[in-house]
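Sanity check record (used in CI):
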Amino acid sequence: MNAGQQQLDDVQDGDLHFRVPASAARLTALRHALTEWAQECGLAAEDREALTLASYEAMANSVEHAYADHVEGVLDLRAVRDDARGQVTVTVTDYGTWKPPPINPGSRGRGLPLIRGLTKTAVITPTEHGTTVTMTWPAALD
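Expected output for Histidine kinase/HSP90-like ATPase domain-containing protein:
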């Protein structure tokens, strides 16, 4: 991870949690850490790819939409393997307020449908204190 990106202490063994500035420049390192985590968990290649792409899209949405007018903010990335349920869960949380979508998004606006198409379940939870995207996949092993 780059300087300024550190795994937080509130994680269980084998889980992943990073809190970083919500900046596009941070997303590549997070994507790589998440891909490595999914591989260490033994997820099947197809699930790793879906997890990485959907999570990256959720992080990009947080960076682009949560912090208007150049307000600095943070984003949390969590990844947890739950063997009892046979699934992995990734959450992306921001603490901003999403901009209203444009009336005519043109070629944009495909992120949430993409996320939903790549996950077993995807839940977007907006609150007055931020938005959390929770995504799950079966913990199918290679």
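The mean pLDDT is 84. If this sentence no longer matches the regenerated tokens, the check is flagged for review.
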